[in-house]
Amino acid sequence: MALRLTRILKYFFVLLAGCSIASCNNYAKGTGDEFLPDYWVDTSEIPNDTIAFNAPNLTYKNGVYFLSGKAYSGIVHKKQIGYNIDTYSSVHNGKLHGTYESYYPSGKIFESRMYKNNLSVGKQYGYWEDTGKLKFEYNYYNNKKEGEQKSWYANGDLSYSYHYKDDKQEGLQQAWRLNGSLYRNFVVKNGTRYGLQKTTTCYELEEEEIK
Prior knowledge:
- The protein has one helix spanning 2-28, and strands at 50-52, 58-61, 64-67, 70-71, 74-80, 85-92, 95-103, 109-116, 119-127, 134-141, 144-145, 147-152, 158-165, 168-169, 171-176, 182-189, 192-197, 207-209.
- By secondary structure, the chain is mainly beta.
Protein backbone atom coordinates (compact mmCIF):
# COMPACT_ATOMS: atom_id res chain seq x y z
CA MET A 1 0.00 0.00 0.00
CA ALA A 2 2.89 2.37 0.69
CA LEU A 3 4.11 1.76 -2.87
CA ARG A 4 0.63 2.46 -4.21
CA LEU A 5 0.50 5.71 -2.24
CA THR A 6 3.92 6.75 -3.56
CA ARG A 7 2.75 6.23 -7.14
CA ILE A 8 -0.41 8.23 -6.54
CA LEU A 9 1.58 11.04 -4.91
CA LYS A 10 3.74 11.26 -8.03
CA TYR A 11 0.60 11.27 -10.18
CA PHE A 12 -0.92 14.08 -8.16
CA PHE A 13 2.22 16.22 -8.42
CA VAL A 14 1.91 16.10 -12.21
CA LEU A 15 -1.85 16.58 -12.08
CA LEU A 16 -1.77 19.50 -9.68
CA ALA A 17 0.96 21.22 -11.65
CA GLY A 18 -1.31 21.01 -14.68
CA CYS A 19 -4.26 22.30 -12.66
CA SER A 20 -2.19 25.25 -11.47
CA ILE A 21 -1.28 26.20 -15.02
CA ALA A 22 -4.87 25.85 -16.17
CA SER A 23 -6.11 27.87 -13.20
CA CYS A 24 -3.62 30.63 -13.90
CA ASN A 25 -4.73 30.77 -17.51
CA ASN A 26 -8.39 30.95 -16.48
CA TYR A 27 -7.82 33.68 -13.91
CA ALA A 28 -5.63 35.63 -16.32
CA LYS A 29 -8.65 36.09 -18.57
CA GLY A 30 -10.60 37.83 -15.79
CA THR A 31 -10.73 41.43 -14.71
CA GLY A 32 -7.50 41.29 -12.72
CA ASP A 33 -9.26 41.18 -9.35
CA GLU A 34 -9.06 37.38 -9.05
CA PHE A 35 -6.46 35.68 -6.85
CA LEU A 36 -4.17 32.89 -8.05
CA PRO A 37 -4.82 29.65 -6.12
CA ASP A 38 -1.72 27.82 -4.87
CA TYR A 39 -2.34 24.07 -5.25
CA TRP A 40 1.25 22.95 -4.74
CA VAL A 41 1.77 20.51 -1.86
CA ASP A 42 5.31 19.59 -0.79
CA THR A 43 5.40 16.05 0.64
CA SER A 44 9.15 15.47 0.37
CA GLU A 45 9.57 15.30 4.17
CA ILE A 46 6.81 12.75 4.75
CA PRO A 47 8.04 9.16 5.25
CA ASN A 48 6.12 6.17 3.85
CA ASP A 49 5.68 4.69 7.35
CA THR A 50 2.08 3.60 7.90
CA ILE A 51 0.31 3.39 11.26
CA ALA A 52 -3.21 2.30 12.15
CA PHE A 53 -5.61 4.97 13.38
CA ASN A 54 -6.42 2.86 16.45
CA ALA A 55 -2.78 2.20 17.37
CA PRO A 56 -2.43 2.58 21.17
CA ASN A 57 0.31 5.22 20.94
CA LEU A 58 -1.43 7.33 18.26
CA THR A 59 -3.82 10.08 19.34
CA TYR A 60 -5.91 12.54 17.38
CA LYS A 61 -6.74 15.83 19.08
CA ASN A 62 -8.11 19.08 17.65
CA GLY A 63 -7.38 17.95 14.11
CA VAL A 64 -3.77 16.96 14.82
CA TYR A 65 -2.18 13.47 15.03
CA PHE A 66 0.31 12.71 17.80
CA LEU A 67 2.52 9.64 18.10
CA SER A 68 3.76 9.08 21.64
CA GLY A 69 3.08 12.74 22.37
CA LYS A 70 4.89 14.14 19.30
CA ALA A 71 3.32 15.44 16.10
CA TYR A 72 3.24 12.51 13.68
CA SER A 73 4.50 12.45 10.09
CA GLY A 74 3.67 9.50 7.86
CA ILE A 75 0.59 7.63 6.64
CA VAL A 76 -2.47 6.96 8.81
CA HIS A 77 -4.65 3.97 7.88
CA LYS A 78 -8.24 3.92 9.05
CA LYS A 79 -11.07 1.48 8.34
CA GLN A 80 -14.37 3.34 8.00
CA ILE A 81 -16.77 0.71 9.30
CA GLY A 82 -19.99 2.52 8.42
CA TYR A 83 -18.87 3.14 4.83
CA ASN A 84 -16.91 -0.13 4.57
CA ILE A 85 -13.89 1.57 3.03
CA ASP A 86 -10.20 1.84 3.91
CA THR A 87 -8.60 5.28 4.05
CA TYR A 88 -4.95 6.32 3.87
CA SER A 89 -4.06 9.85 4.92
CA SER A 90 -0.73 11.57 4.32
CA VAL A 91 0.23 13.50 7.48
CA HIS A 92 2.99 16.03 8.13
CA ASN A 93 3.68 17.41 11.61
CA GLY A 94 0.35 16.04 12.74
CA LYS A 95 -1.74 17.67 10.00
CA LEU A 96 -3.30 16.24 6.85
CA HIS A 97 -0.84 17.15 4.13
CA GLY A 98 -0.60 15.45 0.77
CA THR A 99 -2.77 12.65 -0.60
CA TYR A 100 -5.86 11.29 1.10
CA GLU A 101 -7.25 8.20 -0.59
CA SER A 102 -9.88 5.59 0.18
CA TYR A 103 -10.65 2.15 -1.27
CA TYR A 104 -13.65 -0.15 -1.66
CA PRO A 105 -13.43 -3.66 -0.10
CA SER A 106 -12.59 -4.89 -3.61
CA GLY A 107 -9.41 -2.80 -3.52
CA LYS A 108 -10.66 -0.40 -6.18
CA ILE A 109 -10.21 3.28 -5.45
CA PHE A 110 -13.23 5.10 -4.03
CA GLU A 111 -11.91 8.63 -3.54
CA SER A 112 -8.74 10.69 -3.79
CA ARG A 113 -8.03 14.26 -2.75
CA MET A 114 -5.23 16.54 -1.57
CA TYR A 115 -4.65 18.43 1.67
CA LYS A 116 -2.31 21.26 2.54
CA ASN A 117 -1.86 21.97 6.26
CA ASN A 118 -5.23 20.37 7.09
CA LEU A 119 -7.04 22.25 4.30
CA SER A 120 -8.49 20.58 1.21
CA VAL A 121 -6.93 21.93 -2.00
CA GLY A 122 -7.12 21.17 -5.71
CA LYS A 123 -9.04 18.30 -7.27
CA GLN A 124 -11.14 15.79 -5.35
CA TYR A 125 -12.21 12.69 -7.26
CA GLY A 126 -14.74 9.95 -6.51
CA TYR A 127 -15.21 6.76 -8.54
CA TRP A 128 -17.96 4.20 -9.15
CA GLU A 129 -16.78 0.78 -8.02
CA ASP A 130 -18.24 -1.32 -10.83
CA THR A 131 -16.99 0.71 -13.77
CA GLY A 132 -14.19 2.83 -12.31
CA LYS A 133 -15.78 5.86 -13.96
CA LEU A 134 -15.85 9.23 -12.24
CA LYS A 135 -18.61 9.68 -9.67
CA PHE A 136 -17.71 13.26 -8.81
CA GLU A 137 -15.00 15.84 -9.41
CA TYR A 138 -14.76 18.77 -6.99
CA ASN A 139 -12.35 21.68 -6.77
CA TYR A 140 -11.18 23.21 -3.49
CA TYR A 141 -8.97 26.04 -2.36
CA ASN A 142 -8.18 26.34 1.36
CA ASN A 143 -11.06 24.02 2.24
CA LYS A 144 -13.56 26.06 0.20
CA LYS A 145 -15.31 25.08 -2.99
CA GLU A 146 -13.79 26.94 -5.90
CA GLY A 147 -14.61 26.58 -9.59
CA GLU A 148 -16.67 23.84 -11.22
CA GLN A 149 -18.10 20.96 -9.17
CA LYS A 150 -19.39 18.00 -11.18
CA SER A 151 -21.14 14.70 -10.49
CA TRP A 152 -22.01 11.77 -12.75
CA TYR A 153 -24.55 8.96 -12.64
CA ALA A 154 -23.34 5.35 -12.66
CA ASN A 155 -24.02 5.14 -16.41
CA GLY A 156 -21.57 7.99 -17.03
CA ASP A 157 -24.15 10.70 -17.72
CA LEU A 158 -23.61 14.08 -16.07
CA SER A 159 -25.77 14.63 -12.97
CA TYR A 160 -24.90 18.25 -12.25
CA SER A 161 -22.44 21.01 -12.98
CA TYR A 162 -22.26 23.77 -10.37
CA HIS A 163 -19.86 26.69 -10.19
CA TYR A 164 -18.48 28.22 -6.99
CA LYS A 165 -16.41 31.18 -5.93
CA ASP A 166 -15.11 31.41 -2.36
CA ASP A 167 -17.38 28.51 -1.27
CA LYS A 168 -20.54 30.14 -2.66
CA GLN A 169 -22.44 29.44 -5.83
CA GLU A 170 -21.48 31.87 -8.57
CA GLY A 171 -22.21 31.55 -12.27
CA LEU A 172 -24.13 28.88 -14.20
CA GLN A 173 -25.76 26.07 -12.19
CA GLN A 174 -27.24 23.08 -14.01
CA ALA A 175 -28.54 19.63 -13.06
CA TRP A 176 -30.03 16.75 -15.04
CA ARG A 177 -32.28 13.83 -14.14
CA LEU A 178 -31.25 10.28 -14.92
CA ASN A 179 -33.34 10.41 -18.10
CA GLY A 180 -31.26 13.36 -19.29
CA SER A 181 -33.86 16.08 -18.74
CA LEU A 182 -32.59 19.41 -17.42
CA TYR A 183 -34.33 20.35 -14.16
CA ARG A 184 -32.04 23.05 -12.77
CA ASN A 185 -30.78 25.84 -14.96
CA PHE A 186 -30.01 29.18 -13.35
CA VAL A 187 -27.26 31.72 -12.88
CA VAL A 188 -26.04 33.13 -9.57
CA LYS A 189 -24.48 36.58 -9.59
CA ASN A 190 -23.38 38.31 -6.38
CA GLY A 191 -25.67 36.13 -4.26
CA THR A 192 -28.77 36.55 -6.42
CA ARG A 193 -30.22 33.72 -8.50
CA TYR A 194 -31.60 34.37 -11.96
CA GLY A 195 -33.46 31.52 -13.61
CA LEU A 196 -35.25 28.30 -12.84
CA GLN A 197 -34.89 25.56 -10.26
CA LYS A 198 -36.58 22.16 -9.88
CA THR A 199 -38.56 22.54 -13.08
CA THR A 200 -38.36 21.61 -16.75
CA THR A 201 -40.85 24.23 -17.93
CA CYS A 202 -39.60 27.44 -19.48
CA TYR A 203 -40.93 30.47 -17.64
CA GLU A 204 -39.86 34.09 -17.49
CA LEU A 205 -36.65 34.61 -15.52
CA GLU A 206 -37.07 35.36 -11.85
CA GLU A 207 -34.82 36.82 -9.17
CA GLU A 208 -34.33 35.04 -5.86
CA GLU A 209 -31.94 35.77 -3.01
CA ILE A 210 -29.50 33.00 -2.10
CA LYS A 211 -29.34 32.26 1.62
